[in-house]
């Protein structure tokens, strides 16, 4: 017992010494963090106190608050004279120089207060929704959308993969997601990963399904709490590929994308839009169905995720709300930064896809949303030949009178916010076969 007690006492003495050294070493770091926090808080007060232009100079910190930090940095080559220099040292990619502490950065330039006629959806204390940072996160993700924008002809450099082959693969991936009971965000991230890789590297047709199942594996590991086993995913291909091939393909995909898998997704913005008004479950399920239904279409690829989410919600409100109700309110326009005129073309595209869904070859999304857990919205009879859909798909369709008046009379704040977002996007550029009803083979 004596040796054990002696060893324990020695450990306690050693821990006290280490703790004292730890406190000593952390003291300069605490001072630096305090100075940085003061700088950030000072700039926020200046930003809200006056209307600062994008090209305005960053307010400096009083000398009394920078003396300690300047004394510690003597003898170093790096001079921390502005927050922008710190970001350049931390960031290793030119496309991620977005400094939240610098008022001249896109992130700080697009934050404005909520107008009086719009309800503040962040005026609550629910920590799970991060009310202090929610709008800043949305602004940042919308500014990042430009880095992942692709054109409709992004498959031209892939001689063996056509838009029809991609649609077949995406439809099958939706069935895989439904079979494995994965999140909707996993399917959306999977499709985004597939498109980004196809736009950067040619893929033989015989390896296209391997790319799809590999992107499911990557997306599930990023989003799910318990991602599926790679062996189970290989079994869904009827043994066409083995685990070693999936892992090797995973290395290629991540290396090609530079491990950048944090992409803006439609459901990310849709969850934000749902909080603007009290939408019932049917509206939420139908909006999610429209997004899933659009994934196989190559015409939706150039549409930004935030625009796709807003258009899906707008079309859903047109279909389910009374005719006299506003389908796109000033509050939705403020938080989404899109007017109804901005959504019109994408709403028309979604209406065409929805009308053709019963006769389409790609039935993955329709089968998925026919489940009772999703209220069977894909099988609703009113979706067939709905007057709103027929009007939107006609040649001379125009927004309704009430909605046009709403857009003209209540969106001054929206236009200002949209201009600032466009400035932010400009500053952050430069990152940036026949049977399709195949059911995944059960393991």
Automatic annotation (TrEMBL):
The Gene Ontology biological process annotation of the record reads: cell division; mitotic cell cycle phase transition
Q: Where is the composition biased (Basic and acidic residues)?
A: 74-84
**Segments forming a coiled coil:** none
Respond yes or no to whether keyword Zinc-finger is given for this record: no
SUPFAM superfamilies xref list: Cyclin-like (SSF47954)
Domain Cyclin C-terminal per the UniProt entry, residue ranges: 264-383
Query: In which organism is this protein found?
Result: Pomacea canaliculata (Golden apple snail)
> Keyword NAD, does the record have it?
no
InterPro entries from the entry?
Cyclin, Cyclin-like_dom, Cyclin-like_sf, Cyclin_A/B-like, Cyclin_C-dom, Cyclin_N
MF terms in GO: cyclin-dependent protein serine/threonine kinase regulator activity
Where are the residues of the annotated region Disordered? 61-84
Family according to the record: Belongs to the cyclin family.
Q: What protein am I looking at?
A: Uncharacterized protein
> The organism sits in which domain of life?
Eukaryota
